[in-house]
Every structure is written in C-alpha cells, then in structure tokens.
C-alpha cells in the first residue's frame, strides 16, 4: 500500500528519480522497518546522497554525450566560421546551464519526495504500532472479561447445586413430615375409636349399675316374680 501511494506520487519526477526512490523504499521495507515493532524515526536514509550523485553523473554523461555529438557534427560540416563557433559555444553553455538547473530542481524534488516517503513510512509504522497495541489491549480486556464470565458461571453453578441439594433435603423432610402426620392421624383415629369404645362400655356399665340399684330397691316378693320373667323384656319393664 505504501509503495503504491509513493509510485503514484513519484510519476512526475522522472525515470531516474522514480527508480532511485523505489529502490530506497524497497530496501527500507526489506530491512524490516515496518514489520518490526519499532521504527527509528530520526534515522536518515543512507543512500540519499548516493542517489543524488547518480542522477548528477547521469546528467553529466548525457551532457558529455551531447558535446560529443555536437563535436562530431561540427567535424563533419567543417565549420570554420568564428561566429558560428562562438554561437555553438554559447548554445552549449546555455544547454549546460539549463541541465544544471534541471539537476538542481530534480535534486530538490528528490529530497522532498524522499522526505515525504520517509514521513509516510514512519506514519504508517506508527499507525501499525498503535493498532498493534490496541489489539493487545483489547485482547487482554477480552480475556479478562472471559475469565470473569467463567468465574460467574462457576459461582452460579455452585449456587444452583446448593439450592438443588436444599430442595432435595426439603423434599425428604416434607416426606418425613407427611409420614409423621399420617401416623399421628392414624393414632388419633385409634384413640377416638378407643374413646368411643370406652364411652360405650361406660354407658353399659352405667345402665347395669342403675339397673342393679333399682333391683335392690324392689321388695323381695316382687324380685321372685321378676326372676320368673324373661330377661329380654327387662328394658320395657316398669320397675317403679
């Protein structure tokens, strides 16, 4: 991504500057300036002066070649006119001056573009370092929250198991209470039955006692008559 932006911006510089910066950026990236966790922000590009000198040498060679072509042309035409010779020298000097000016401008543009490339590389490295730290921070926070959730789930599971044990205990206690209640109810019924039986016996005993008392109060002559009567009719009998 960095190389694509740089290449797009460096198209206006020219072929030599383009190749020089391309090689510098590739060397800079290959050396691990972006892939590593740190960036030496103030470290100068070591090949900057060398590339500038290469551009200058190229222009000088071009000027030399131009001079040779002019010399060959002059030798072929065999121009002996002094005015033409002076004019040729003036043209050559003007051409050299123009080339020097172009070289100076190219040097300035090259330095500026390389500085911008260095700033862009450093900015992207800082941005990558920032996002890397952000990722580590978010990852640590996520792990902490994950551990907290696991701890809460464990506590809830323990509480659920405890409540379940309490529920089972209450169920057993309820079953025991129901058994005791049924036994108590059965005991109450038995006691009520015994009470009713005792009441019946008391009524019978009371009736017998009352009958005996009444019988003792009867005169002797009537007792003999009563003994001759059927005992089953004793209840309807007037003892007064």
Instruction: Kindly report the average pLDDT value.
Output: 72
Please state the structural category.
mainly alpha
What spatial form do the alpha-carbon principal axes imply? rod-shaped
Largest sheet: none
Compressed to H and E, one letter per element, the order equals HHHHH
- Point out poorly predicted stretches: 1-7, 32-46, 235-240
Rg result? 64 Å
Number of helices: 5
**Strand percentage:** under 5%
Tally of DSSP β-strands: 0
C-alpha end-to-end distance:
137 Å
Helix content: over 70%
Keywords: Coiled coil
Coiled coil: 49-109, 149-201
What report would you give on this structure?
By secondary structure, this protein is mainly alpha-helical. The chain has a domain at 2-154. The protein is 82% helix and 0% strand. It has helices at 2-9, 15-30, 48-77, 82-216, 220-228. Helix 3 (48-77) packs antiparallel against helix 4 (82-216). The radius of gyration is 64 Å and the shape is rod-shaped. Mean pLDDT is 72; it is low at 1-7, 32-46 and 235-240.
């Amino acid at each position: 991504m960095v190389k694509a932006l740089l290449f797009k911006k460096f198209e206006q510089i020219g072929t030599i500057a383009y190749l020089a910066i391309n090689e510098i950026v590739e060397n800079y990236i290959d050396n691990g300036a972006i892939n590593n966790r740190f960036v030496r922000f103030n470290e100068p590009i070591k090949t900057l002066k060398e590339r500038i000198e290469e551009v200058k040498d190229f222009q000088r060679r071009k000027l030399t070649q131009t001079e040779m072509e002019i010399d060959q042309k002059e030798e072929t035409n065999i121009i002996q006119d002094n005015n033409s010779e002076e004019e040729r020298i003036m043209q050559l000097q003007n051409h050299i001056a123009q080339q020097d000016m172009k070289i100076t401008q190219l040097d300035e543009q090259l330095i500026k573009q390389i500085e911008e490339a260095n700033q862009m590389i450093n900015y992207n490295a800082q941005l990558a370092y920032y996002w890397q730290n952000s990722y580590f921070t978010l990852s640590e926070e996520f792990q902490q929250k994950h551990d907290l959730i696991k701890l809460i789930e464990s506590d809830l599971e323990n509480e659920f198991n405890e409540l379940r044990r309490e529920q089972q205990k209450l169920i057993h206690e309820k079953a025991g209470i129901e058994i005791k209640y049924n036994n108590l109810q059965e005991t109450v019924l038995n006691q009520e039955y015994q009470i009713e039986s005792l009441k019946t016996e008391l009524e019978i005993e009371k009736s017998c006692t009352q009958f005996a008392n009444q019988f003792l109060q009867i005169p002797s002559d009537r007792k003999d008559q009563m003994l001759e009567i059927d005992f089953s009719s004793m209840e309807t009998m007037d003892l007064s």
